[in-house]
């Protein structure tokens, strides 16, 4: 038996690989196109509908009577924040799901989002903090919850199913803390309360979008640099380590980056329900198996938030924040996964 | 290139209070084929995990070419030493070609791109394991034997000087077992790869390995050539099994035939313990 393959086989391997990477690019381009449509919709539709040409003129600084202000000051920050937060949730979520090899292990299911959200609410409502301090508190709380779940789930080694159950319990406790804090702040409107319970991009400003952009650059960049390692971590830990992945360090970095993404976005928009949870599986469905769909999940996350927000603002009888809409989409999927996990004896 | 030397010096390792490996010292013959044999739970996988630095020993060290593996960068080590774990996990729906491509991981830096050499290494691995025609299939749709060959292909694509394999022939029918072991000999002769494998089939181990290591209860009971290790006495001590060792007429290597309580001829029955051939109690 020969140990060297005939040249045509190498060519076939190469062409298979190229075909797949072309396929991935096509899908990314397609979702990117949909994203552009979503952004355009958000920019054009408000109390009144602004034609696309006027939107472009307003964005490039032209004077558009009646629409210039709302396009530049209201709709643009909203579109930007929705896109950036959606990308953060999508990317942070898929990283957790990939690392723990379980779609239920998403940060919004296992309490990391609620940890960040609870910290943000306490910081804003009880301590009167604003800006970067709130983001930092949210990131620290997210990390603390991640660590707590890990320690509670640790017995010989971390079992995925136990970790998820513990996470769901912690999440429920944190939600009740959020509700309690909100109830002590009578000046808050229902809209504000909903932001911290389900997430919202109402009243977005450019200042709010900035920390999310920075976190996406920093943590997203880190994850991009580690994407091959994340790919190898989908195999068993032993296999990944044997392939030369410094597991301890890289896992810590990846979790830090994912928690950072989720927490910073949550500190601004609240925990937009189920975006982190849904993006990864949707991305895996559209790209097909093969790689961890990091970039695609980020794009899907942005799309979910943009479309969810548009639906909540314009297509329902009353105005709802985006989290109510994404929650309505995500809850049935969560039920489906839990039912399936029960049938399979605890393994989703 | 001179063959790499891999040694374990005074290893003590385990997963909790009681160590699984107890002061284990061994040297693997450079450029050779070694087989580790022993009863279930005696520590074979634990030994491989220590050798490949997946498990940090409490005491002692693993030395590769005179250097402790603890001091080597992870990626450098992975370019020299590959491991096929006993129960690897394939991500849902991943294709054979994608899985085998993971073997190239240690050869790629942060910035370096996938090269023609990477494609060639993947193709070589697919061809050697006869999995080329499966390249586009999903790994989780394959039979156990096909899947095993795909995992071996991934380890081959890593192109390491030393290859550790934990039970590479489980799930395989006898023909495929022989094929995999022949492939490992090809690899050993063709590329000079040092092969270390855990095997449960003592006869195949004796036939294919130049060096046998018999492990009992986390310690080396015997190590040496198959003729030195595969003896009635050592099999009795390591497995608690009585057997007859004869010469394998096809290879000239030793071969063992287990003695059971049933179905033994008069000459091989333990008098006073085993039932008569017709089933009547002793
Ligand atoms: N991750 C782990 N955590 C705790 N104990 C473990 C772990 N892995 C193995 N053990 C224990 O260590 C002992 C040796 O296990 P090991 O896997 O090395 O055995 P083995 O010789 O490879 O057995 P087999 O032939 O069944 O594969 C066993 O008692 C096992 O229960
Ligand atoms: Mg084992």
TrEMBL record, chain A:
GO cellular component term, pick one: plasma membrane
UniProt KW Membrane keyword: yes
Pfam families listed in its UniProt record: FecCD
Membrane topology of the entry: Multi-pass membrane protein
Subcellular location(s) of the protein: Cell membrane
A GO biological-process term: siderophore-iron import into cell
Keywords annotated in UniProt: Cell membrane, Membrane, Transmembrane, Transmembrane helix, Transport
Transmembrane parts of this sequence: 27-49, 79-100, 109-129, 135-154, 161-182, 209-226, 253-278, 290-308, 320-339
InterPro entries with a match to the protein in the record: ABC_BtuC-like, ABC_transptr_permease_BtuC
MF terms in GO: transmembrane transporter activity
SUPFAM superfamilies, sorted: ABC transporter involved in vitamin B12 uptake, BtuC
CDD domains referenced in this protein's UniProt entry, alphabetically: TM_ABC_iron-siderophores_like (cd06550)
Family under the similarity heading: Belongs to the binding-protein-dependent transport system permease family. FecCD subfamily.
Protein name: ABC transporter permease
Organism: Roseivivax isoporae LMG 25204
From TrEMBL, chain B:
Keyword Ligase: no
UniProt entry tagged with the keyword Lyase: no
GO terms under biological process: iron ion transport
SMART domains according to UniProt: AAA (SM00382)
Primary site of residence: membrane
PROSITE patterns in the record: ABC_TRANSPORTER_1, ABC_TRANSPORTER_2
Chain positions covered by the region annotation Disordered: 252-282
Record-annotated ABC transporter domain positions: 6-242
Keywords on record: ATP-binding, Cell membrane, Ion transport, Iron, Iron transport, Membrane, Nucleotide-binding, Transport
Protein name: Iron-dicitrate ABC transporter ATP-binding protein
Species whose genome carries this gene: Roseivivax isoporae LMG 25204
């Amino acid at each position: 038996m020969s140990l060297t393959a005939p040249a045509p086989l190498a060519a076939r391997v190469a062409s298979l690989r190229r075909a797949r990477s072309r396929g991935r690019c096509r899908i990314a381009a397609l979702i990117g196109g949909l994203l552009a449509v979503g952004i355009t919709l958000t920019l054009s539709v408000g109390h009144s509908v602004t034609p696309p040409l006027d939107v472009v003129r307003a964005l490039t600084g032209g004077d558009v009577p009646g629409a210039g202000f709302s396009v530049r000051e209201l709709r643009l920050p909203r579109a930007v924040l929705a896109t950036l937060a959606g990308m953060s949730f999508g990317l942070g979520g898929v990283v957790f799901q990939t690392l723990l090899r379980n779609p239920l292990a998403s940060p919004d299911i296992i309490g990391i989002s609620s940890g960040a959200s609870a910290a943000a609410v306490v910081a804003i409502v009880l301590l009167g903090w604003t800006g970067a301090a709130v983001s930092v508190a949210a990131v620290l709380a997210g990390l603390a919850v991640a660590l707590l779940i890990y320690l509670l789930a640790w017995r010989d080694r971390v079992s995925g199913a136990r970790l998820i159950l513990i996470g769901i319990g912690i999440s429920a406790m944190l939600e009740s803390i959020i509700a309690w804090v909100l109830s002590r702040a009578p000046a808050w409107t229902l809209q504000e309360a909903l932001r911290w319970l389900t997430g919202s991009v109402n009243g977005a400003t450019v200042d709010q979008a900035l920390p999310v952009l920075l976190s996406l650059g920093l943590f997203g960049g880190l994850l991009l640099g580690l994407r091959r390692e994340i790919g190898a971590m989908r195999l068993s830990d032993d296999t990944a380590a044997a392939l030369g992945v410094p597991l301890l360090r890289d896992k810590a970095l990846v979790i830090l980056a994912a928690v950072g993404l989720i927490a910073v976005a949550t500190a601004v928009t609240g925990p937009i329900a189920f975006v982190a949870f849904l993006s990864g599986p949707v991305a895996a469905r559209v790209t097909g198996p093969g790689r961890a769909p990091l970039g695609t999940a980020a794009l899907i996350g942005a799309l979910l938030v943009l479309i969810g927000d548009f639906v909540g603002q314009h297509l329902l009888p009353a105005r709802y924040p985006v989290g109510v809409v994404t929650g309505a989409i995500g809850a049935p999927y969560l039920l489906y996964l839990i039912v399936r996990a029960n049938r399979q004896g605890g393994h989703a | 290139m001179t063959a790499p030397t891999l040694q374990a010096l005074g290893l003590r390792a385990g997963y909790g209070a009681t160590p699984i490996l107890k002061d284990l010292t061994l040297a693997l013959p450079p450029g050779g084929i070694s087989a580790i044999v022993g009863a279930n739970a005696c520590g074979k996988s634990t030994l491989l995990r220590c050798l490949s630095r997946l498990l940090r020993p409490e005491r002692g060290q693993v030395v590769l070419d005179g250097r402790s593996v603890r001091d080597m960068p992870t990626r450098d080590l992975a370019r020299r030493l590959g491991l096929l774990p006993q129960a690897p996990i394939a991500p849902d729906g991943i294709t054979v070609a994608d899985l085998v491509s993971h073997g190239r991981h240690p050869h790629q830096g942060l910035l370096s791109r996938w090269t023609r050499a990477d494609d060639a290494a993947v193709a070589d691995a697919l061809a050697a394991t006869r999995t080329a025609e499966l390249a586009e299939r999903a790994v989780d749709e394959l039979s156990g034997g096909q899947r095993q060959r795909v995992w071996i292909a991934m380890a081959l694509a890593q192109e390491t000087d030393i290859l550790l394999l934990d039970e590479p022939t489980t799930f395989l029918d006898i023909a495929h077992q022989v094929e995999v072991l022949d492939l490992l000999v090809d690899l050993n002769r063709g590329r000079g790869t040092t092969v270390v494998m855990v095997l449960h089939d003592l006869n195949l181990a004796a036939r294919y390995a130049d060096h046998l290591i018999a492990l009992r209860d986390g310690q080396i009971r015997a190590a040496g050539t198959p003729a030195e290790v595969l003896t009635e006495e050592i099999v009795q001590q390591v497995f608690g099994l009585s057997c007859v060792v004869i010469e394998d007429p096809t290879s000239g290597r030793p071969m063992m035939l287990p003695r059971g309580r049933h179905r033994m001829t008069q000459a091989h029955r333990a008098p006073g313990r085993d039932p008569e051939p017709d089933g009547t109690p002793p």
